[in-house]
Amino acid sequence: MPLPPLPRLALRLVEAVASRDEPGFLSLQRRVLRVEMEDGSLSEPFVYDAVGRERLDAVVIVPHFRDAAGQVHVYLRSALRPPVEARPRAVWPVPERETLGAMWEVPAGLVEVDERSPEGLRRCAARELHEEAGFAVDPQAVGELGPSSFPAPGVMGERHFFFHVEVDPARQIEPPEDGSPLERGAKVVAVPLVEALELVRRGEIEDAKTELALRRLAEIG
Questions:
Q1: Fewest Cβ atoms nearer than 10 Å: which of 100, 112, 127, 194?
Q2: pLDDT in tens, 97-117
Q3: C-alpha angle 118/176/138, rounded to 5°?
Q4: Domain count for the chain
Q5: CB-side exposure of 213: number of CA atoms within 13 Å?
């Protein structure tokens, strides 16, 4: 059944409020908005906060290979996420695991300013794959893995662009990383795709973009 047409609503800017904070990796974008209804009427003004950054979008890439038996394996990388690790205990609806903040993810990274094109996205995916998983691939070998999506549309306008590529395990090198302390000491592991999906179902893989990418890879076989 097709979805009905989206309501013809629009946002109208009343005022952009300058942040009092010094510029950083992220910036607070506070705006006073109105919603314009389908009949042209305007809602009352309201304040809406969002987060922005210069390098707004990101690529998500799934490196994979088939073993001698034909089973698909994917590479995952450990990541330490400060916002998750810093979840205040007072907000916990359920107990959290002792490793809160440490996550398994597929390689991903931010799109540089000079990579804002279809060809640039593939270059970005190949670059991040090399930095985070230790595989050097031709950007033209990188394939799209479904449409892009918004991971947190209520907070940020970031788009995730999904890719996959077949790699040769024998050609893997030590990942050079990007120099960030958060990337040091990470582990890269190859896991059968069926097992990775089971880890998703058990909640051991908690990263949403990774779950989406793994499920898409499984769909294409």
A1: 194
A2: 999 999 999 999 999 999 999
A3: 35
A4: 2
A5: 30
